[in-house]
Design brief:
The protein is 50% helix and 11% strand. The chain has 366 residues and is an alpha+beta fold. The chain has two domains: 170 residues, Cytidine Deaminase, domain 2 (3-Layer(aba) Sandwich), CATH 3.40.140; 175 residues, no CATH class. It has a seven-stranded mixed beta sheet with strand order 1-3-2-4-5-6-7, sandwiched between helices. The radius of gyration is 22 Å and the shape is elongated.
């Protein structure tokens, strides 16, 4: 699930251009449910892998209509209507000749059109999308939905792209690209070698005290964000953040500073640093689950649910029993919006964290 800053849907022609920005990558072989409120503001985007076996499609429909997935997720963010997009082909496919006459997954679409209204969600349209071409499952008028698919008018496509360029939002070519972005750096990689070489020196110079270490990290992060090509500073940040997640107390103090009152100008750079820390960690490192889960939380709060799931996958590979990872995965499964996390963090003070007071299990993240 991905939740974005306010985006207004201005007609179906914009959807094939808009959807990759909402996902963070170009969907392939996917079913997307874009939840909207009554003002047509996009509140949430959910992506499901399309089953390879048609017999498995009933399980997907059950998930969409069931209380553990789409119904609760849409209600949690105030979305009472949805547009459903089916991406039946790979990310780099083009619209096949004659495809419009026999759109695939019609049985799935019909079932979804029943399941979502049963959960109180009005389905505004269902579209088959390949690249930036789309055709409605409910339209048989070739003037409106030609067999070769309808392409967004240039002015509509340009308006959508301009909206996200202003937010410095990029689209990756596929979900696999998200996974690749967290691929472990191999032995001999220059950045990993620099991290290993400088580890002892950086750790020896860390200030005493958890709060001093968190504040020092944030100051160093701000300096690096102004000169992000500075590899020396990046290496130091990677080592510093590793030392901040090696205990629950320091990890939660860091997350409190980052997410109780989140700022995109901070979340963007810290996600880059955490991603490199994950990539430079040994597969069996005890801190890998903590680093990857911290990255998942920051990605989720930053509105990037797809990246949060990829980071959680790395965390669960490293330590399936890591408590915070399990909690965040449950929150994402239930479709909770990032505000659920930030509100919880805002209700905890740094003084409570520093005092080491026993956490209230009803509000504590781990």
């Amino acid at each position: 699930m991905t939740q974005q800053p306010d985006v207004v849907l201005r007609g179906p022609d914009a959807l094939p251009v808009l959807a990759p920005y909402l996902c963070g990558f170009v969907p392939g072989r996917s079913l997307l449910v874009i939840g909207l409120d009554r003002d047509r503001i996009v509140r949430v985007t959910m992506r499901f892998d399309l089953p390879g076996d048609p017999d498995e499609e009933s399980a997907l429909v059950a998930a969409l209509g069931g209380p553990a997935a789409a119904g609760e997720a849409l209600a949690a963010v105030g979305a009472d209507r949805a547009v459903v997009l089916v991406y039946p082909l790979a990310e780099d496919a083009s619209w096949p000749a004659g495809f419009g006459r026999t759109l695939p997954h019609r049985a799935l679409v019909a079932a979804v059109e029943v399941a979502l209204p049963e959960r109180g969600v009005e389905v505004l349209d269902t579209l088959c999308v390949v690249g930036e071409r789309a055709r409605s499952y409910g339209c048989s008028d070739p003037a409106c939905c030609p067999p070769e698919g309808r392409l967004a008018p240039p002015e509509v496509a340009d308006a959508v792209r301009a909206q996200f360029v202003g937010r410095e939002t990029a689209v990756l070519p596929s979900r696999a690209a998200l996974v690749e972005a967290l691929r472990p750096r191999e032995s001999g990689d220059p950045l990993r070698e620099a991290v290993d070489r400088r580890r002892a020196g950086v750790l020896m110079r860390l200030p005493p005290g958890d709060l001093a270490r968190v504040e020092g990290f944030l100051r160093a992060l701000a300096a690096w964000s102004r000169a992000p090509r500075d590899q020396v500073r990046l290496v130091r940040l990677v080592l510093m953040v590793g030392a901040l997640v090696d205990t629950v107390g320091r990890r939660d103090l860091l997350l409190h500073r980052l997410t109780a009152a989140p700022q995109r100008a901070v979340l963007g750079p810290v996600r880059q640093v955490l991603a490199e820390a994950v990539r430079c960690s040994e597969p069996g490192s005890p801190d890998l689950a903590a680093l990857a889960t911290t990255l998942a939380v920051c990605s989720w709060v930053d509105g990037d649910g797809a990246a949060a799931w990829v980071a959680l996958d790395r965390a669960r590979e490293a330590d399936p029993a890591y408590r915070l990872g399990a909690l965040v995965a449950t929150a994402l499964d239930r479709g909770l919006p990032p505000s659920a996390w930030t509100s919880m963090m805002a209700g905890i003070t740094a003084e409570e964290l520093l005092a080491g007071a026993p956490p209230d299990p009803e509000r504590w993240p781990a």
